[in-house]
Here is the input.
Amino acid sequence: MTIKDFSILCGTTTQTLRYYDNISLLKPTYVDYLTGYRHYKEEQALTFVKIKKLQEASFTIEEIKELLTKDDEFIYNAIDLKIQEERKKLDKLIKIKESYRSEKEKMIDKINDIKLQFIKEAKKIDSFDEFGISQEEYLKMVNSQSEMFDLVGPFLENDSLDLIKKMDEANFEEPNENFNPLEEENNTIIYQYHDFKKVKEALANIPSLVNDEKYVLYLTLADDKIKNMALLGIIVQLILDKNKEIKINLTAHSSISNDNKNHLYLLKSI
Here is the structure.
């Protein structure tokens, strides 16, 4: 049979048969070397059926080549093994689906707990004494910070653009004694204040920031301040508010100070 007639018999295309020939999966019985025409025997249609069914069973080309040399009983056993493999994959997918939902719910609960802890810690601070701002202004800042936690739920569902935007404006990181922005060669100190008792002292003369520049705020704090998780967020909010007319790229870090005193550094990042 010509390749065209054989393709009609198998319900496929001549392109597919040429591809099978090129990869030595199903070769014609005869090739006219003068014309290049391929010819097939009718019984090869059974081999074609085997190939298609094994492909549908997710066997690779190399696996199919091996199976075509085996008898039907061997192929049946191979398909049984493939069924077991696919069942294991399906069971794994089902478990992933179940754990995805439960882990997401646990994460949301954890974030809500952090939010409550943030508000609790914020209430311990005397806004005027520490920051030099009114209670009303302070509460607005606390609410603004806590809204970031509220956006996490929708973010887990829909990748909230609002949350991404807020996180771009101010990136907060957990205290890390092993990370020191002062040691980064791309950072240059543009302002520093040492041994302050109240944050308002350190922020009184902090310079205005420049649009589209990158900055790093680094605080090394004594025990009484480092323990309050709300402090760093409010400091960053104060800086953001002071520079609200421009686009700010500000990353904030804090760590425990070595001398149990409070130090603030504002660095420009190249």
User: Anything to note?
Assistant: The radius of gyration is 34 Å. Residues 158-176 have pLDDT under 50 and may be disordered.
